[in-house]
Amino acid sequence: MDFAQDIEVYSLIAFWAFITIALMYLFSRTPMGRMANAVRDNDERTEFVGYSQRKVRFISFCASGFFAGIAGGLFAINFEIVTEENLNALTSGVVLLMAYIGGVGFFIGPIVGAVLFTLLQTLLSIYTEIWQLYVGVLFVLTVMYVPQGLTGILAMHIPIYQINRLGSLVVPYIRTGIPLAFCLAGVVGFLEMIHHVRAASVGDTEMSLIGIGFDTHTVMPWIIVAVLVAVGGYFTKTQLPQLKEAWERAHAPLGSDEGAA
Amino acid sequence: MTSAIKLTGVRKSFGPTEIIRGVDLDIRQGERHAIIGPNGAGKSTLFHLVSGRYNLSAGSVELNGEDISNLPPYEIYRKGLSRSFQVTNIFPRMSVFENVRCGLMWSQEYKYSFWHLVDREKKLNHRTAEVLEEIGLTSRQHVPAGVLTYAEQRALEIGIAAAGGADVIMLDEPTAGMSHSETDQAIALIRKITDGKTLVMVEHDMGVVFDVADRISVLVYGEIIATDTPENIRNNKAVQEAYLGAEAEHA
Lengths: 261, 251
Hints:
heterodimer, A: 10 helices, disordered C terminus, B: Rossmann fold
C-alpha cells in the first residue's frame, strides 16, 4: 500500500484507532491504571498504600505520550503535512475541549467529545461563521453545569433505566425541550443577525436563516427573535419545576432497598 | 526483642512554633498502644512524623530496628507500617471494592505493573473480598466510596490501612464522631483486623482507650509525660492533673 487511496488511509487509521482504544482500555484495567485513578481521586492517600504519586504520574504521562505519538503518526499520514499549527496551544486546547465536553471521568467521554466536536466543526461551519462561539458556549455550559460532560448526562440515566423508570422522564423532557428549543432558536437567530449586521459589507442588509430571507434593517425579524427568546424562556422556566420533580421521583429509592445505610 | 516503633528525641517545628518537643517512645512488637492527650497536644503531628507525611526537625524514628527517619510515606509503608487518617481519606470516586484493592496491590507485588489485568487476578480479588467481609462492606462493594455513610467510610478507612498486611498499624481517632453502637462495632473490627499485629492508636474516647490498649502514652504540649499500663495511667497523679482530671476519678 502506498496510501494514495483514501480508503487505504482510512483503513489504516481505523485499524490503529481500534487497537489503541483497546490498549488504552486495557491499560486502565491494570494495577498501574487503577493507581492512576487512585492518584486522581486522592493523590496523598496513594503514598500511604505504597505508591509514589510522582512515579504513577510519570508512568501515566509516558503512556499518554505513547498513544499521542501513534495519533501524531496517523495524523501525518492523513493530512500529509505537519506544521507548527498542529503542535501549538490552540490544538492542545481543542483536545482538552473535546475531553471536557465529552466527559473526563468516563473512558468513552473524550471519544464522544471528539466525535461531537469534529461534527460541529465540519457541519456547523458550513451553516454559520460563528460556530466557534457555539462550541465555546457549549464548553462553558458543560464545565459550569455538567462537569461530568455529555457522557456524564447519559450515565446519570443508567440507574434510572435499570429500574425501568426512564419512561417517566419522557414527557417532562418533551415538555421542557420544546420551549427550550424555541428559546435557543431565538438566541441563535439573534446572534446570527448581530453577526450579519457587524460583518456584512455596507448596504448588504439581506440575510437568510433556515431558508427564510429577510432584511436585518427592518424591525420585524428582531421582534420575532425577541418573542422566541421571551416566550420560549418563559415556558421553559414554568416547566423546570416539573422536570425536577420527575427527576427526583425517578431517583427515589425503591421501597427500603438503600442498602446498609 | 526489638521495638516495633522507636522514637528518639523527635522534634517538629512549624516556623517558630515547636509542636513536638523531644519525644522518646518505645512501642513493643505486638502490643496495642494508645496515645492520648488534650486537643492540640500534637498527637496527629506525631502520627504524621512516624508515617512520613512530615519530615522531622530533629531526632530519629525506627521501625522494627530500621531507621525510617524522613523516608517518604510509600517507603515506610513498604517496610511494614500502615496508617489511617483522622479525617476520612479514601478514594471517593472509586468503588468500595477498588478502594480496598488499591490498599492491597503493593503487598501482592503488583507494583506499577501494566501487564496484569486486575479483574483477572483471582488471588488479589479473593483477598479483597475477604477484607470487605471483615469490615462488613461486602453488600456495598460496588458503591462509590464517596457515598458511603460516615461510619462505613471509617470502616473502609481502617480496611484500606489494614488490607496490605502491614505488621504495624496506626489508627488516628478511628471512632471519632461515631455513635455508641458504631463505636462498639469499630472496636470489634479493630481487634479483629489488628490481631497479632502492633497497633498504635490516637483516641479521644477514654472508654475505647482503656478497653483496647495494653499500654498508654500521654502526650501533653508536645511531650510524653507518662507511658504505662492503663491502670497505672489512671492512678498517675501527673496525668490526672494534666489531662484526665475528674474523668479519671469517675472511671
